[in-house]
Amino acid sequence: MNSSDWEKALEKVAHEVSSENFSAALTEEDLESLRIRFLGRKAPLTELLKSIKELSLEERRLLAPKAQQIKSQLEAQIEARALEIEKLRFDAELKTQSLDLTLPPLLPLRGRSHPLTKMQDQMAHILGLMGFSWAEGPLIEDDEHNFTALNIPEHHSARDMQDTFYVEGGQVLRTHTSPVQIRAMRKQKPPLRIICPGRVFRHEAVDATHSAAFHQVEGLYVDQNVTFADLKGTLEEFLKALFGPQIKVRFRPSYFPFTEPSAEVDLSCLFCSGTGLASDGRPCGICKKTGFIEILGAGMVHPNVFKAVGYNPEIWSGFAFGIGIERVAMLKWRIKDIRNFYSNDIRFLAQFEDTELPLLA
Ligand code: FA5
C-alpha cells in the first residue's frame, strides 16, 4: 500500500470512529464487541499499524502519530464508557437491593504468619537465648559450598545421600543448610555460634513426611574443647524448651561426611505418646511402631571441614546440627501430612494462633 492509500484508509477509520455512538453500548459485552471491532487483532486500525513498516521512514514519521492518536482516543473512549456502564449497573443494583444499616459490620480478615514461620521463629528464639546468632546463605549454591568444603568430594558416594537439583552453570539448589556453616566460618574467626534457618531442595518423591522443598535450621558451635556432651546437652535443652520436659530424646549413631562422630536424633512420637500403638491398638502409622521420629542430624565438626575454612583442627573443635522445621512442626502440632503446609488452605493455616514463645527452664 502506498502512503496516500494508507492515509485514506486511516481517514476512513477516523470517520468511522467519530460517527460511532459509544453511549449506545449498555453492557460490558456491547463494549467488548466495540473494542474488538475497533482495536481487535483484525480491526482495520490494527492492520494499518501493522502495515506501516511498508512506508518510508519519512512517511512513517508523518502518519504514525496520527494513527496513534486515533488509537489512544479510542482506548480513552472505551475506558470512559466502561466506567459509565459500571456506574449504571451499580445504580440499578441499588434500586433493587435494600441497605440494612443495622447489620453488624464484616470484620476485616487478619493476616498471620505461616505455621512454618512460627515454628522457625520459636526455634530461633530458643537458640537465640542459648547465644546463637542468625546467619544466612544463598538458595542457589556452588558445588564447593554445598559439597566439597563439607568433605564430600566429587564422585564421593555420599553425594547420593541427597538427590540434587542442578542449575545451569553447574550450580545446585542447596540440598541442606550446611553450606552456610562454610560461609560463616570463612567470614568469621572462631569462637562462633550461629544458626541458619532456611529453605532447602531435594529431588525426592513427595509423601506424607517428605517434600522436595522444605526447611531446615542449621546450628554450628565452634570453640576450644567443645565435646559431644555439649552437643547432647544443647540439643536436649533445646528440644525440651520446644516440646516440654516430658519429651524423650534419643541419639542414634549415624554418618555424615562433615561430622565425626555423627548422630541422628529422634523424639518420642507425640502421636502415640511413644508407645508405637495408635489409640485403636493398631501400629502407629507415623512412627511406624518404633515410638520415635527422626527430626535432626548432628555431630562433631569433621577436621577436614575446619581445614577447608582455614581453622586449625588441633585448636578448635565444634558441633553442628541440622533440623527439619516441617518435621518438628508436624510433631508439635500433630500434623499427619507435610503437604498441608504448602496447600494454602486457609482453614488449615488459620488454626495456628499466636502462641507465647517458649523460654528455657
Ligand atoms: C542433613 O541435611 C544434614 N545437613 C544435617 C546435619 C547438619 C548433620 C550438621 C550433621 C551436622 P538429613 O538429610 O538427615 O541431614 O536432614 C536433616 C533433617 O531434615 C532430617 O532429620 C529431617 O528432619 C529433615 N528432612 C530431610 N529430608 C526431608 C524431606 N524430604 N522433607 C522434609 N524434611 C526432611
Tell me briefly what this model is.
The protein is α+β, with helices and mostly antiparallel strands and about 350 residues long.
Fold topology:
Blueprint: H1 3-19, H2 28-39, H3 44-51, H4 57-96, H5 115-129, E1 133-134, E2 140-141, H6 143-146, E3 172-173, H7 179-187, E4 192-201, E5 213-223, H8 228-243, E6 249-256, E7 259-268, E8 292-301, H9 303-309, E9 317-324, H10 325-333, H11 346-349
Parallel strand pairs: 1-4
Antiparallel strand pairs: 2-3, 4-5, 5-9, 6-7, 7-8, 8-9
The site of adenosine-5'-[phenylalaninyl-phosphate] has 25 residues, from strand 5, strand 7, strand 8, strand 9 and helix 10.
3D structure, described in words:
- The chain is an alpha+beta fold and 361 residues long.
- It has two domains: 3-95; 115-352, Bira Bifunctional Protein, Domain 2 (BirA Bifunctional Protein, domain 2).
- It is built from eleven helices and nine strands.
- The chain has helices at residues 3-19, 28-39, 44-51, 57-96, 115-129, 143-146, 179-187, 228-243, 303-309, 325-333, 346-349; strands spanning 133-134, 140-141, 172-173, 192-201, 213-223, 249-256, 259-268, 292-301, 317-324.
- The strands form two sheets. The protein has a seven-stranded mixed beta sheet with strand order 1-4-5-9-8-7-6, with helices on both faces. A two-stranded antiparallel sheet has the order 2-3.
- A hairpin with a 2-residue loop joins β6 (249-256) and β7 (259-268).
- The radius of gyration is 32 Å and the shape is elongated.
- The termini are far apart.
- Residues 162, 176, 178, 202, 204, 210-211, 214, 216, 218, 256, 259, 262, 294-299, 320-322, 324, 326-327 line the site of adenosine-5'-[phenylalaninyl-phosphate].
